[in-house]
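Thread: copper (II) ion complex, take 2
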Amino acid sequence: MAAVKYTEEEELLILEEGHDPHFHDHHHGDDKYRMSFISHYIFSMDHKMIAKQFLVTGMFWGIMGGLMSLVFRLQLGFPEESLAWLKPVLGKWITISETGVGSLDPEFYYALVTIHGTVIVFFVLTAGLSGTFSNLLIPLQCGARDMASPFLNMLSYWFFFLAGVVMFASLFLSTGPFSGGWTAYPPLSALPQAMSGSGAGMTLWAVSIILFVVSVLLGGVNYITTVLNMRTKGMSMFRLPLTIWAFFITAIIGLLSFPVLFSGVLLLIFDRAIGTSFYLSDIYIGGQALDYVGGSPILYQHLFWFLGHPEVYIIILPAMGIVSEVLSVNSRKPIFGYKAMVYSIAAIAFLSFIVWAHHMFMSGVNPFISNFFVLFTLIIAVPSAVKVFNWISTLYKGNIRFTNAMLFAIGFVSMFISGGLTGIFLGNSAIDIQLHDTYFVVAHFHIVMGVAAFFGMFSGVYHWYPKMFGRFMNPVLGKIHFWVTMIGAYAIFWPMHYTGMAGVPRRYYRFDSFEAFSYFGEINQFITIAAVVVFAAQVLFIINFFYSIWNGKKQTTVNPWGATTLEWTTPIEPGHGNWPGAIPVVHRWAYDYGKDGRDFIPQTEPLGENESESH
Amino acid sequence: MSELAAQNYNRSKIHPQKFLLWIGLASLVMMFAAFTSAYVVRQAAGNWLEFRIPNMFFYSTAVILASSLSLQASYAAFKKNNTGAYKKLLLLAFVLGLTFLVMQYLGWQDLVSIGVELTGNPSGSFLYIISGVHAVHVLGGVGVLFVALMHAYGLSHKVTEKRKLRFELTLTYWHFVDFLWLYLIVFFVLQAS
Ligand code: HEM
Ligand SMILES: [Cu+2]
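Output below.
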């Protein structure tokens, strides 16, 4: 390295950054410093490349999870139809009767439901969403050359990747992957002999989750440190875009809650591997009493949901951040109630730690203690409503540009309202007696978390695609993608509220054999058809995504959306280090749209003489 | 663009790596908080085996405290360019760390000898698992101390910013596992009484 001659520009940088030990890792696009293929695309330490790695891996898992749901939806919608045509893919999980009718193995049905939930919650909506956008945007929008520790950042991705490999491998076990539900409650998860997926399948599930927790923690420490320590000059906390606030608080929640899952899963592993009795007690299998004494399955539920509830906010907060930014940029108006937005993110984060037992109203926790959790659960609706109000007010009288990102952002608000309202029903422990473990819950969390978070993610991808690839995605395909998904998602999940209120339980293999539920057969068919259509629209998105990387319309101006934030001050294809010269200095908050008769004022522009900073 | 920041702007006086370490420690705190709250919740549910914590665990507490002190003293000597004390105290901290691990192992044996097994009533299992997971973190710390020893004995004694930082990171982590154990032992004693 010592013999290398620097260009003038780099000399300048070294002068400026002289004390920075990182510098030698930051090569700025110059051909002489082109990193090798491996260090550029594979073991990259550039936050922008790591973001793309998270995104593409997340998309892979999105497709996997989506395909799984199609298989079990076919089973639910058309229990009588032959699935023999799936035999080439699913092999022994399809049994073909003498008459040639292929049916899905019931244990495998449970495995599909379980792995669908696990990978979408953790791999797609946690890693694929907050991993992608925290990595891409924290350094770019804070004005830093990279994360505080690019190395840990790279490790974070590779632990995620490994977690995925282990989970993927579990799909090919002869006993099948874990099938006790994404929440992995004991005893199904704790007793290897409980069902076929509880053996090796559960072992791999647990290993995968542990690797995943490590990935989240490594990412999280980096995000927090970068936001707190490496903001550029002038970028005070209250000048940060809401995206960064959301990622920052998400990382804090993750850091405080994932270790608890880690502990919970560790105890589970001990129960499985060496026969401790943390979660097991007085169990009989085949009439035979097992040795386990004195354990408590409820203990696991506490540990799981202490993570599990914050986890749902880990998923939704980044989407909220993205939506706030996109709504403001495309309404050409400042976000309404910026500080209220920040405080409500913080309030949601705080409250998310003291409501976990609302998942356990029906598990035998003390009903008096439930009251406490009902109270805090309902209070969460307050900051949530503040956010919804502010989004709508931002749109009000805006100069709205219906870009694809904007459509998905508006769709997010709609989904969040619909799903949040049903949360208020569920949060009442008395109503929950009827609704718990029914399709009402399935509808609630798919709309408020599943669909809404996917919308946030789509919004972010369409909006920052030019930043990632220097090109645009095809807007027409994007519009089709949006409308089919928007209408289709409601078509899938709206009817589930009704079946749920009628008491149809979740996680059943088929309903046609139950007197009480069989008359929902047609609704179930309708839902399945809608699911197939929505999946097709996602295929369109994937095609659009990859096609546009090479063939999309080229980005020609640095700031195509007319946004105020720092990421649009870099060159179109920023090198490692983001800004070829020095890092820009910030003089104002991120939402000066339509101020003083100007369309927008970038954060880098100093305040005018008589101008006061708006908030 | 009107004006350019000269450098990668670093806001606080605390070094980013130290900051990273502190945040990482916060997540470890949560992990042990989860263990100990699981302990409390499970204990409250009854069917809980009561037993006296073997004395070995109190002796080991003294040992790890001594190790922390000696590392602190070594750090002071390092800064004052007192090479002899720096090396010897570092070695002492390392040996005491190893001793702690051995003593924990002896403590587990004492548990077995009073009939508290790893897989019996959860009250025993908790003690094994929590002290075991803690010991794994001490083992990591001993590894870091070993690297520090290699530096101390392999390199000439120079107080550079980089080496100081490295030492401080080691020191912080080591004090952390030490105080963590102190918390755990106090917790066990209070819960048992
Ligand atoms: C106003 C806010 C909300 C309230 C009051 C609320 C309340 C509840 C309650 C009480 C349950 C348990 C239902 C049962 O199992 O019987 C539940 C389930 C769930 N909620 Fe919410 N919720 C709210 C918002 C959210 C948000 C924003 C998300 C995610 C982003 C979310 C994700 C989930 C998930 C994933 C489950 C089900 C987990 C499972 O059993 O598999 N909720 N919600
Ligand atoms: Cu919850």
